[in-house]
Amino acid sequence: MTIYRGHLVHIAGAPSLPRSRDHLVSEPDGALVVDAAGRVAYAGSWADVPAAFARDTVIRTGGCLLPGFVDTHLHFPQTFTTDAFGGGQLLEWLEHCVFPAESRLSDAAYADVVARAFVRRRVAVGTTAALVFGSAFPAAQDALFGRTLEAGLRIVSGRGIQTVGSPSAAALLTGEDEAIALTRDEIDRWHGVEASGRAVEARRALAQVAVVPRFSLSVTTETLRRLGDLYGEVRAEGVYFHSHLNENDRPDDGEIAAVRDVFGVRDYLDTYDGLFLTGSQRGGETLLGRRSILAHAVHTHDRELGRLAETGSSIAHCPTSQQFLGSGTMPWRRTVRSGVTIAMGSDIGAGDEWLIPRVLNDAFKVHMSEEGLLATAIDPAQLLFLGTLAGARALDQEDVFGNFDVGKEADFVIVDPTRQDGFAETLSFAAEQGPEAHLFTLLMGMREASVAAVHVRGRRVAGPE
Ligand SMILES: [Zn+2]
């Protein structure tokens, strides 16, 4: 057993987003007891640590103990393309910045450089679990999975599937047969893999695989039909589905207009729901379900939100990226009301911030700035929920990690506010006003520098050289 002593903060139990406030635990003199298997044995006040643990190793952190952050949408091959100038919105940025940058990962040695950098960035910001949009190239994906497992982080990822595209995306395209074969091969090789060969269920393993078409515009109806068949076969093993949805609505030539134009569907979501033929006729099996996560959902109709909720699918909300590409923002109240699970995504590289609390800071500001009566002040417990437990729920692994409930695997971040100029004083002033004020200042104010240590399954993780 190891006891970590510090200001312990988490959302206990399994509340809905609106109820998370009632589940906020904040123990200024708290303790997290981690057993030899890396599980939470106790989380609460230091004074109440059971006597049985009293003589175990105590680590005085001098800071805050938070559950590890969960990033449900970021792009591995865009590690070096944050803040790339595309001269326009989504489609221009893809064309001018992203497709050329992602093509460079065809060089396996370069891909390994990117994979190491990607893992280092994740460790630096305490993102213990992530749903990672992958590279088109199998060797690059091998580097990503291999480096992530070496470090000991959790990952769900899949190669980005593209079967149609402009000349600038040429290197990223494959034929229909190859798209399916490469995806199937990646599932065989990486779904349910552990670094140590330790036996766990595939659905709980550190490395798991997703089926990831870039977006509807990068695939054909033939690809969608065959991905539906494939997903039907592997869904029961816990394989994920991940893509983008309703991001850019510029009239006439934006993403959503193009999807309607190309497929002739009512709504964008229909293309992922097996209804991708003209007039939203059924052409194949649905890709939606409990392990399906769609990024953005900025311009989504109530019918689509209802369908996401009823299938148990989730939304990766990416406010930083949405500001960068001028996409607008996910309508907060309407999306919450639909009952769909909402988690956070940095969307690196359209998002230029890796630290999930900085993405939460953007979420707070954009929803506070929604028009008129739609303006919402998201409370601090909801912010913490979004960056931790909601991510675990979106990944369908809420029984494994996401908070400090006894028996869960101990994924946590130690935040040391003295590592950030002036922050310790600001935080202790906030703490005098109570737990919610402390949490709000902690999440809104913390920067990467204050992430002092990162643990997955109780084991301290370190990035590669
Ligand atoms: Zn994205």
The number of domains? 2
- Judging by the overall fold, what is the CATH architecture of the largest domain? Alpha-Beta Barrel
Bound molecules: zinc ion
Shape by Cα distribution: globular
Q: What report would you give on this structure?
A:
There is one protein chain. By secondary structure, this protein is an alpha/beta fold. The protein folds into two domains: 2-67 and 403-460, Urease, subunit C, domain 1 (Roll); 69-369, Alpha-Beta Barrel (TIM Barrel). Helix content is 33%, strand content 21%. The protein is built from 14 helices and 16 strands. The chain has helices spanning 90-103, 108-125, 138-151, 176-190, 221-234, 255-263, 302-311, 319-324, 332-337, 356-368, 380-387, 389-394, 423-431, 435-445, and strands at residues 2-11, 24-34, 40-45, 57-67, 69-75, 127-133, 155-158, 160-161, 207-213, 240-245, 292-296, 314-317, 341-344, 412-415, 451-456, 459-460. The strands form two sheets. Strands 5, 6, 7, 8, 9, 10, 11, 12 and 13 form a nine-stranded parallel beta sheet that branches. Strands 3-2-1-4-14-15-16 form a seven-stranded mixed beta sheet. Helix 7 links the parallel strand 11 and strand 12. Helix 2 packs parallel to helix 3. The longest helix is centred in the N-terminal third of the chain and has 18 residues, at 108-125. The structure holds zinc ion (ZN). Zinc ion binds next to strand 5.
